[in-house]
Amino acid sequence: MPVPPAARCVPGASSTPAVHPLAAPSRARDLADRAAGPGRRDPRPGAHKVVVLALDGVYPFELGIPHRVLGSADGRYEVLSASVDGQPVRTDADLTVTPGHGPEVLAEADTVVIPPYAISPSSAATPDPRALTALSRVRPGTRLVSICTGAFLLAAAGLLDGRRATTHWALTDYFQELFPRVELDAGVLFVDHGDVVTSAGAASGVDVCLHLVRQDHGSEVANHVARCCVVPPYRDGGQAQYIERPMPPASGTGTGPTRDWALQRLELPLSLDELAAQAAMSTRTFARRFQEETGLSPGRWLTQQRLRRARHLLESSDLSVERVAHEVGFATATSLRRHLAAEAGVAPSAYRRTFRASGRAAGDVREASTT
Length: 371
Fold this sequence. Notes:
The chain is α/β, with parallel strands linked by helices.
């Protein structure tokens, strides 16, 4: 029977569909091509060769991203997988994968992707020597791409020294401690230097692979790939919008009680004089003590707490942006937009779309399920 239209973007959704014996051969070939999904076809002659290097403890989801995304570009990429010794690789889940190649294939690659792998204090600083040896096979000029903790291998190999790079935001402090010569930016989804590209965690692997397609073949091809993979072709903002910023508990001494007091009055235009008076300190002493206890100036701390509450309201309520701004103490919606864009890289409306499913979106899902 013919493959349903919804399955045509799913690789391997079906074998070649049955074709009526009288159907023209060209029609049969067309149906067979479409059954594999738009964009899924054998590599073209001279296709850009991508090798995904699976290390011990590799994350299965991210391991498959280059195959799924780059493999949906109408045969423009040949995507292969390899291990450091040609042997099966243990993942961080309860399964083992067997890459199709050993490290020798890295010498043929145009792009090498390092997906994330489970790291420990020892393996992060000093990775498996076989992994470094495998990297040494890569030809000069080959593009290197890391996803999430894959950046640790590139950094350990000295390939990120003096360069801006990124990795998962939760590993920022650990990475910077190990590799102080790397300029780490934990607020972005990826950093592209042309020959070296680093990306953040999990789904940012999709973002960076779409970016590679866009760089190599333009937006039209990248948009086609995104539609086949059912993902947005480009995500607004960066990692910053996903970082949780828990508020440290206020102590019962110093400026702690005043911080508790201020949190109950964020909608008010609190001044430094008011805060200092509440703490029964001079403004100068209060500002110094506040900085010592929180690492922030009172003004910066207030802005952070207002943004924290604004993000919560955008996620959990239907309040307008103007009302949210008023509720958290920003003078205008413009002020909220400016501060949120500086912190998270997105406008309030975009933040809400990302983190809160509206009734309309839920209705769209229900309607789609009935067609």
